[in-house]
Design a protein that fits this description.
- 2 copies of one chain form a homodimer.
- Mean pLDDT of chain A is about 85; it is low at about 1-10.
- Chain A starts with a helix and ends with a helix.
- Chain A has helices at about 5-15, 25-30, 35-45, 65-75, 80-95, 100-139, and strands spanning about 50-55, 60.
- Chain A has about 140 residues and is mostly helical.
- In chain A, a hairpin with a 5-residue loop joins strand 1 and strand 2.
- Chain A has one domain: Multidrug-efflux Transporter Regulator, Chain: A, Domain 2, CATH 1.10.1660.
- In chain A, about 70% of the residues lie in helices and about 5% in strands.
- Chain A is elongated, with a radius of gyration of 20 Å.
- Chains A and B meet through helix 4 and helix 6 of A and helix 4 and helix 6 of B.
- The structure holds a DNA duplex (30 and 30 nucleotides).
Chain lengths: ~140, ~140
DNA sequence: TACCGACTTGGAGTGCACTCAAAGCAAGCC
DNA sequence: GGCTTGCTTTGAGTGCACTCCAAGTCGGTA
């Protein structure tokens, strides 16, 4: 609300945090690899704050929106459930007070991720071994 | 059909390849972590050869069945599509001639897996970085 | 002025991988 | 015999994450 709160938020966002409405949905599609459908759907479920609109009602996304979407895409790549991402987005909207909760959420996901990497690597070994078996049998 | 074909198959299967019908569906549930529903469904879609039956018509799975299911579970853990696993299972049923195709299928999946591990590790770095950011801000 | 392509909406549809319901059978135990 | 537990079947239902549809508006170019 006050400048005292607004300032740290500004810092948090970093250099990519420009709020100027710039990009059409089509440009964001190109930049993020998400579809226009998915962008609207993300907005509807609260994963994305409703972006600015042009005078004719078309969405105009900012750099801040785009970098948030890029972060979301990375999380999706790790199969984080959309519901968890919504939770994170909600906390983010609620401001500075929730940063401990957000940190906890990320730490939890980091654990999940580390375990999954370990699982994948273990399975990779099994597959390597099967492939070797087939290779030996061939000659 | 002939012994000349049966022998290499026997070798391929290794020590875990006992075909004796042993385990009820409940026991296989405990051993594999899959549900009974899922086991029946796997059978229906051709992922699992129809197992032996008791005199009263109940399924009796062999060690061979169980180790195949354990392998399938590992593949599922890596999010291999069920359709691909069905393809692999089909090739396996068709016998020795398909081992090159099976090898190719596994090699393809290995590539997918390697890429995914790399993606996850990259995202892990991003998350680490975010967590550090929250940590610094807290004190 | 005509046209094209990009954009808008809400609600319905899709594909995947299960997951469950309902109704019934069989075995083991008191 | 009665009860419980575990199994059987087919077909329908679920949850997730999109994905598409229809019908319309808007901006820019020829």
């Amino acid at each position: 609300m006050s400048l005292a709160i607004a300032l740290p938020l500004e810092e948090e966002r970093g250099p990519e945090a420009d709020d100027t409405p710039r990009y059409t949905i089509g440009e964001v599609v190109t930049r993020t690899g998400l579809t226009a459908h998915t962008l609207r759907w993300y907005e509807r479920i609260g994963l994305l704050e409703p972006p600015a609109r042009s005078h004719s009602g078309q969405r105009r996304f900012s750099d801040r929106d785009v970098s948030w979407l890029e972060f979301l895409s990375k999380l999706r790549l790790t199969a984080m459930p959309v519901a968890d991402m919504v939770r994170y987005a909600q906390l983010r909207r609620e401001g500075e007070d929730t940063s401990a909760a957000r940190k906890a959420l990320l730490e939890e996901h980091r654990e999940v991720l580390r375990n999954r990497i370990a699982d994948l690597q273990a399975t990779l070994l099994v597959i390597d071994c099967k492939i070797d078996m087939y290779a030996e049998r061939q000659q």
